[in-house]
């Protein structure tokens, strides 16, 4: 899934598409801003042998998943980012152990894309956002 898939426009009563202002638009801006820092952490996670599958958790509230790397309050941005791994997601039950291989098959090149687990009030989903 790409970030644009999460930015669905609403349809108004005329049936015409009307762009709804989404907090996910600010996520796209923040991911572009955070680009170098996130890629650096991803490479570090892989080079140090921690995991071949880094996952970054994007949120606007407190979460207990991964390690905080970018704080929205300190950086005056809209989203905080935590660094995690597929192994932690399996350990915490967010990815079922029997579906780990399926997830890994869907996982895009970690040198070209950041894997982001986006948490919003309506739910959560994975996106793969290209590094700039």
What can you tell me about this protein's structure?
Residues 1-22 are annotated as: Disordered. The protein has 132 residues and is of the alpha+beta class. The protein has one domain (3-130). The protein contains five helices and seven strands; from the N terminus they run αββαββαβααββ. It has helices spanning 3-6, 23-47, 72-75, 86-91, 100-106; strands at residues 10-11, 17-18, 54-59, 67-70, 80-85, 113-120, 123-130. A five-stranded mixed sheet has the order 4-5-3-6-7. It has a two-stranded antiparallel ribbon with strand order 1-2. The longest helix has 25 residues, at 23-47. It is globular, with a radius of gyration of 15 Å. The two termini are 18 Å apart. Mean pLDDT is 87; it is low at 1-19.
Whole-Å distance between the termini? 18 Å
Element pattern in H and E: HEEHEEHEHHEE
What is the alpha-carbon Rg in Å? 15 Å
The low-confidence parts are 1-19
What is the number of independent domains? 1
Q: Can you tell me the overall shape?
A: globular
Strand content: 25-35%
Name the helicity range.
Answer: 25-40%
- The largest beta-sheet arranges its strands as 4-5-3-6-7
- Helix and strand content put the structural class at alpha+beta
Major pleated sheet:
5 strands, mixed
Mean pLDDT: 87
Number of strands: 7
Q: What's the tally of helices?
A: 5
Region (Disordered): 1-22
